[in-house]
Each structure stands twice: as structure tokens, then as C-alpha cells.
Automatic annotation (TrEMBL):
<keyword id="KW-0812">Transmembrane</keyword>
<dbReference type="GO" id="GO:0009543">
    <property type="term" value="C:chloroplast thylakoid lumen"/>
</dbReference>
<dbReference type="GO" id="GO:0048564">
    <property type="term" value="P:photosystem I assembly"/>
</dbReference>
<feature type="transmembrane region" description="Helical">
    <location>
        <begin position="50"/>
        <end position="76"/>
    </location>
</feature>
<dbReference type="GO" id="GO:0005509">
    <property type="term" value="F:calcium ion binding"/>
</dbReference>
<dbReference type="GO" id="GO:0009654">
    <property type="term" value="C:photosystem II oxygen evolving complex"/>
</dbReference>
<dbReference type="GO" id="GO:0009535">
    <property type="term" value="C:chloroplast thylakoid membrane"/>
</dbReference>
<feature type="domain" description="PsbP C-terminal">
    <location>
        <begin position="97"/>
        <end position="275"/>
    </location>
</feature>
<dbReference type="InterPro" id="IPR002683">
    <property type="entry name" value="PsbP_C"/>
</dbReference>
<protein>
    <recommendedName>
        <fullName>PsbP C-terminal domain-containing protein</fullName>
    </recommendedName>
</protein>
<keyword id="KW-0472">Membrane</keyword>
<dbReference type="Pfam" id="PF01789">
    <property type="entry name" value="PsbP"/>
</dbReference>
<keyword id="KW-1133">Transmembrane helix</keyword>
<dbReference type="GO" id="GO:0019898">
    <property type="term" value="C:extrinsic component of membrane"/>
</dbReference>
<dbReference type="InterPro" id="IPR016123">
    <property type="entry name" value="Mog1/PsbP_a/b/a-sand"/>
</dbReference>
């Protein structure tokens, strides 16, 4: 029987064959892996993308306050949210913030209330006049500018306007000081007389007056609760007065007397939130 001979392999060539065998075993070993093992790296990538997608969607949801989610979260710690001024965007405990740094004040008001459109229209008209290149017409019959017109006002949508909160900013001498008018009672009496004027058919009753001072800014705030009556109306008011840099700031919340029990606590909250800012 003839014996078949195979070519001899030089010892130096064994490493080459060994490497081929190892590579082949590795390839065969990969074929023997389970599907879960093969797709493990892809699963890790998918998980990372899923987490990023969920986080992004959450930010969008919070940013849009979908379903009041953000307001509910902030309601868990209302003071913290208000200190961060987040209620300018998201209502907190049913209140939004009117933040007017250019006008110098801020306060909170019921989030269901809306801004007075008449003030918006008049503001647009004034802006158009200021941008106009033509000089204003000279007409002595035109009434002078009314400095007692509110700069902002909010109230329930569709209401008659008797229930609202508004802010008036009036120019005063740079050295003006409310304290010069006396104590709390004297100041309250002078303010009430100014409101009623000389009309005998309008009377005013003061229920409470107090003065507080901001420990940081040293600004004095004068709170006044009063009622104004006439043959045609009876309104309950809560007002705050403060002066700064030649301007007198007045915030006033008013309501028909019949609705006072319902809005009383809300009015106190509005008044306590009023603050002058730079």
C-alpha cells in the first residue's frame, strides 16, 4: 500500500498557521453567540438615545406647561418658585407675576385675570406717535396728558371693570416723601380726601392703614384699606403707596362691596407682593 506523504511544514511557519486557526476560532465563536450577546452594543446605544429623547421631551413639556404640569410642580414649593420669578411664565398657586423692571415695580395677580386691552391700544398709539417723523399737531383744545392713567391693569375676562387691579406711576419732586404728611392715620385721611374730592355725594371709610419698610432697599410702603360709596356704586379697595426716585407708585385693587368676602384674601396677597425694583 502506497503511503501518501504531506509536505513538511517548517517550524518557523507554525505561528502563521496558529494565527489563522485562532482567527477562525474567533469567527466561529462569534457565530455561536446568542442574539442577545450580539445586539448588546446596539441595545446600549438605544438606551442612551431613549434617555436623551425622554429628557428632551420632558423639557419641552415643562417649557410649555402642558396640562399645568410645571405649575403643579412649582406649587409644591411656591415661595421658592416666586423667589426665582418663575411665576412670570408659570402660574404658582393660581397667581401670575406682573414683572415690569422698565417701569420699576412687580406684583402678583390671579392667573385667570387678563390685561386691559385699552391700555395696550393706548400704549401702541403712543409708541407710534413717538416713532413718527412728523411734529405733533398744535391744538390747544386737546386735553393735557393724564398722569393718573394706569400703566398696567388686570381683571377677570369679560367683566365690567369694577373688579380689577391697576398701577399708577405719577411724577413727583425728587425730594418727595410720603412721611412728610404725618403718621399712618394722617396719611390715610389725606389720601381719602384726595379720592373723594369736594363731591358731597361720595363718601369714603378707612378700615385699616399700616406702614412697612423693606429692610434691604429702605423703601417705605403704606397700605390702606378703604371703601368708597356713592348713590351709584359701593367699592372696597386695598391700595399700597410708595415713592422712589421722583415717582409715586400706587397699586389699587378694587371690587364691588358685595364681592369683597370672596376676594378679600386675594387682595391682601396682591398688596403684600407689590414691590419697587430698579
Amino acid at each position: 500500500m502506497t503511503q501518501q506523504k504531506f509536505p513538511a511544514t517548517h517550524p518557523a511557519e507554525f505561528p502563521k498557521y496558529g494565527q489563522k486557526i485562532i482567527r477562525q476560532q474567533q469567527f466561529l465563536g462569534e457565530d455561536q453567540k446568542t442574539p442577545a450577546e450580539k445586539f448588546a452594543p446596539l441595545a446600549a446605544v438605544f438606551r442612551r438615545r431613549l434617555v436623551v429623547g425622554i429628557a428632551s421631551a420632558s423639557l419641552v413639556a415643562f417649557g410649555a406647561n402642558f396640562g399645568g404640569i410645571m405649575s403643579s410642580v412649582l406649587g409644591l414649593s411656591p415661595e421658592s418658585g416666586r423667589n426665582l420669578k418663575l411665576d412670570v411664565i408659570y402660574p404658582i398657586d393660581g397667581y401670575s407675576r406682573c414683572y415690569e423692571p422698565s417701569k420699576g415695580f412687580e406684583f402678583i395677580y390671579p392667573s385667570s385675570w387678563v390685561g386691559d386691552r385699552r391700555l395696550l391700544y393706548r400704549a401702541v398709539e403712543r409708541a407710534e406717535l413717538e416713532r413718527s417723523l412728523d411734529p405733533p399737531p398744535v391744538d390747544d383744545s386737546l386735553p393735557p396728558r393724564n398722569f393718573t392713567e394706569p400703566v398696567v391693569a388686570f381683571g377677570p375676562p369679560g367683566s365690567s371693570g369694577e373688579l380689577n387691579v391697576s398701577v399708577i406711576v405719577s411724577p413727583v419732586p425728587s425730594n418727595f416723601s410720603i412721611e412728610d404728611f404725618g403718621g399712618e392715620k394722617e396719611i390715610a385721611e389725606k389720601i381719602v380726601k384726595k379720592i373723594t374730592g369736594k363731591r358731597s355725594d361720595i363718601t369714603a371709610t378707612v378700615f385699616d392703614s399700616k406702614a412697612t419698610q423693606d429692610p434691604m432697599s429702605r423703601i417705605n410702603y403704606y397700605n390702606l384699606e378703604f371703601k368708597v360709596e356713592s348713590p351709584s356704586f359701593c367699592r372696597h379697595n386695598v391700595a399700597v403707596f410708595a415713592a422712589k426716585n421722583g415717582r409715586l407708585f400706587t397699586i389699587n385693587a378694587q371690587t364691588p362691596e358685595a364681592k369683597w368676602p370672596k376676594v378679600q384674601q386675594g387682595f391682601y396677597k396682591i398688596a403684600d407682593s407689590f414691590s419697587l425694583i430698579s
